[in-house]
Amino acid sequence: MIENKSEVSIGEKKSNFSVYFTEFRKILIQILVTFFALFLCLTPFAKKIYTFLTLPLQHKLPAHAHMIATDITSTFIAPFKLVFFVVLALLVPFIFFKLYSFIKSALFINEKKVFFLFFPLSIFLFYSGVGLGYFTILPTVLNFFIGMAPEAVIPMTDINEYLMFCIKFFLILGLVFQLPLLILILVYFHIIPIETLTNQRKYIFVGCFFVAMFITPPDILSMGIAALFMYLLFELGIILSKIVIRITKKQ
User: Fold this and answer.
1) Which band of pLDDT confidence, cut at 50, 70 and 90, is reported for residue 14?
2) Per residue in 45-67, pLDDT tens?
3) Would you say residue 170 lies in a domain?
4) 76, 98, 95: which is closest to 38 by C-alpha?
5) Do 84 and 48 reside in the same domain of the chain?
6) How would you class 2 by CB atoms within 10 Å of its CB: exposed for 0-12, middle for 13-18, buried for 19 or more?
7) Which residues cross the membrane (predicted)?
8) Percent with pLDDT over 70 in the chain
9) Same-domain pairing of 196 and 137
10) Whole-number Å distance between alpha carbons of 130 and 173
């Protein structure tokens, strides 16, 4: 009898694993199919998308300067590489939603609430960081680097190098813009009391300038803009934490 029960238990575990594996494979196929479909849709616009990315640089380059390709394949590969990253960025919400649909049956109600609170906020902050970086911070950074070139040097940026610079730049900004979410998580899970954060404002303000020294060009304008943005993100995290605390107390 005991052997029969153990055999049934093992059989159930194998059956459950098979079901989960089949469901996960189905989700993975859906993600890959969606990725390639969107990639194919955007491929005809690869050059236009890359041109859009280079607009901040083109506006800052001297009249006699232009971009170059040091590799014969760069003119072909760089635009499609950019499309790959654009599609990946656009699919992040879809990917996480599909993964959530896979694990939601194992989550408690409060864990589902946390997911629906934190995940959309994280996506919004990431996209906001990228958008703000493209329209405001990137032109300032490019203007600094180009302005630092000696008079005898003509800035001519390689298209692939510029692409990788922008990818790293936007990724860093997207992560920096997660600061409000980090503060919200620390307060929500009672890791750090909100009173401690509010009482340390002046030290955090100074800390923002200290961090800005390492992530921005060494000019006062770029450093000040970065520090100001980080401090505003900190204050946004405090405001969101207070709102969530009030909602939690009412419930």
Assistant:
1) low
2) 999 999 999 999 999 888 788 89
3) yes
4) 95
5) yes
6) exposed
7) 27-46, 82-103, 115-142, 162-191, 203-220, 226-245
8) 92
9) no
10) 6
Q: How far is CA 204 from CA 86, 181, 194, 219, 235, in A?
A: 34, 16, 14, 21, 10
Tokens of 30: 């859906």
Handedness of CA 17, 22, 27, 32 (dihedral sign): positive
Q: What is the pLDDT of residues 152-173, one digit of tens each?
A: 888 889 999 999 999 998 998 8
Distance CA 212, CA 206 (A): 10
15: pLDDT confidence band, cut at 50, 70 and 90? low
For 132, the token pair is 């703000």
Tracing tokens 């300038």 back to the chain, one arrives at 209
What gap in Å lies between CA 35 and CA 25, rounded to an integer? 15
* Residue 229: closest CA among 188, 148, 189, 173: 173
Whether residues 130 and 231 share a domain: the answer is: no
Q: Say if pTM beats, i.e. exceeds, 0.90.
A: no
The alpha-helical segments, DSSP class H, found in 43-108 are 46-60, 74-103
Domain annotation covers residue 70: yes
Picking from 177, 202, 224, the residue at the C-terminal end of a domain is 177
Average pLDDT over residues 20-39: 92
pLDDT of residue 28: 93
Which of 151, 177, 203 is a domain's end point?
177
Residues 83 and 17 in one domain: yes
Residue 143, token pair as written in the block: 């203007």
Q: What CA–CA distance (Å, rounded) separates 117 from 222?
A: 32
Length of the chain: 251
